[in-house]
Amino acid sequence: MRIWVVLLLVGLIGSQIWVSAFREEAEDNEFAEFEDFEEEDAATASASHDRPTNPDQQKAAPPDTKTVTKETEDEEEEDTVVEDEDDNEFEHFQDEEEFEGFDNDRPVNVEKTDEKEVPKITITKVPLHLRTNWDSFYMEMLMLAGLTVYFINFFTGKNKNQRIANAWFSSHRQLLEDNFTLVGDDGKMEIENPGLIKESEHSYTLWCSGRLCCEGMLVELKLLKRQDLVAVIGQILRPTMDQIQIRVDMAREDMDSFVFCLATKKSGLRLSKEMQDLSLYCPERRAGEKFGVPSNMCVMSEMGEVSSTLLDSRVTSLVNKYQDMIEFMHFSDQYSGPKQTEDTATLVKLPEVKRVLIFCFNIPIKNQGMQESLDQMLPMMHLVFYFMDKVKRFRLGKESKQKADKNRARVEEAFLKTTHAARAEAAAAKREEKRRQEKERIMQEEDPEKQRKWEEKDMKRQMKKKAPKMKQLKVKAL
């Protein structure tokens, strides 16, 4: 598909260059039509000059059929009388029979129509405005070609994403049904369409629930934007892969207090900057060779006990075997999503946190066939279930538990310090709103005595605020 798009773009660019060259050649000869008219006028004038004017020469010349015909037409035109409506309009005023005995001696100025010069009308031959070539429509042709390519790419890309999603669901459906009671919840009271939910042309979701040690699992297929021509061209310049992101919501009693992340170096750098929990509890990134994983990966862990327990021999062997498929694995009991873009001064309480396990896997469709690459994703789903059971059984030691509690208290204290001004302002606004409501309630009553007492009380409170604060000390007499 990419090769066809590139060839089509090269063809469009070549046609534009050819049209531009043809247009320059046409612009050089754009007055050719006027030159043809000038040549015709010159030929007519030369023919009139070559005509003999001497009567003897005319008699001596042999009779020509075209000449005789032209002379006959000239005689007919001379015999024809053209009446001018403007000249004959007032002719009845000059008739003597119409006005008998009226001003007979006054000469009447009558101009003959023959003596009047008739204006000659010359009609200029103007060439047609539109040309007979396609040079004037090359922009329209390019736009139509671009729209055609865009719609063809839209339908083909949309259908391919649909086939990928359906193939993944068909290959993993049996495994999901063996581990969950409900596979494919559409959010309605009675499930009408169990299975994948289409969020957009490149995004599909699947909700599963009904398993021990978790509240539910959300599978999101983030496919390439194959339906978008601009995104397709961007993928040629900067290749990316289809991804599957799995989020498991753990119960509070099924997960201990820790934050852990295993990711590629590129994804680890991005997550440490964007995610709130990783930036607070795991600011340090460690090389993967120390834990038996590939060198292109890094490990971020709140405590060493967590990384050594989770990255056992079974996990490390699977990660080394399918390192191209694993993008990152993020486990946290303090997950609150990306960092909030709002100013921390406007926040008055800590964001709500959840205990989650997040997995992100790559789908290697580009290197292999669709069904074969999706079948290779089954070990990744087995890895998800393995970590769900392992996290449920894992418990921190006494020292690690105390360290985790101290870290969370430290983060909460730092947050309260940064938001102290905002909380004080919110408390003041709340007190002012309460005082205003009390004043409105008193003023609505028709008891002037209560109103007077409330005003005195409010005045004393205002004076007390304005008074300087003094500390009273008691001195004992010696």
From TrEMBL:
One of its GO terms (cellular component) is rough endoplasmic reticulum membrane. Pfam families: CCDC47 (PF07946). The keyword Phosphoprotein does not apply. Residues 72-87 have a biased composition (Acidic residues). It is found in: Rough endoplasmic reticulum membrane. Residues 1-21 form the signal peptide. It is a single-pass type I membrane protein. Residues 462-478 have a biased composition (Basic residues). InterPro entries: CCDC47 (IPR012879). Residues 428-461 have a biased composition (Basic and acidic residues). Keywords: Membrane, Signal, Transmembrane, Transmembrane helix. GO terms for biological process: endoplasmic reticulum calcium ion homeostasis. Residues 35-87, 423-478 are annotated as: Disordered. One of its GO terms (molecular function) is calcium ion binding. Belongs to the CCDC47 family. This is PAT complex subunit CCDC47.
